[in-house]
Amino acid sequence: MKPNKKPAIIYISLVTLALMNSGVFALESDSDQPITIDSNTATYDDATATSIYIGNVISDQGSIHVTSDKLVVYFVNGDAEKLVFTGNKAKFRQTPNIGEKDITGEALTGEFYPKKDLLILIDDATVWKDNGTYSSNFIEYNIKTSLVKAGEKASDSKRVHVVITPKGAEAKPEQPKIVEPKPIEPMVTEPKIITTTPTPAPKKPTL
Q1: Does residue 135 lie in a domain region?
Q2: Which residues, including other chains, have CB under 8 Å from residue 142's CB and lie 6 or more apart?
């Protein structure tokens, strides 16, 4: 099938394909929302039951937002079984609860399994959650529980690097210093005493 050259907006529900909009929802209901995909081109292969989206791909499911260069969706019996995101880098964010700080992440490859509520980040992956930064070549993220699992016991190449920043160590803006002006002392000027000598009267001429 030839690719569609026009920007494509595709909506995928977990049961059937549905053309409908989805708003922003909290974490607990994200997995119940339809998946929407927006891309520059889209193709579907009946033989392999896959659809491919290329170019500025934007995928949303509730509060989950993913951007990538390419996305491949694998269908099983009409359901979206697996979504594979690739890019430099593919990035995601999710709002755990209304009013809370977003959980964000990035990797060269991302695999999303909607039925398992599981997002796997592969190769040069990082997840930012609360005050922690988790880096590894393999990170599992559960979109239902916000659980982050990084690294694999059997692989040194997938070791984990974690940085936890104390809340009290967050940089605070430097307060401007207030310099109180010195009081101005009054200038005291001593009065000058001017003395004058009277001029003698002129003498009368003698006759």
Answers
A1: yes
A2: 117, 118, 119, 149
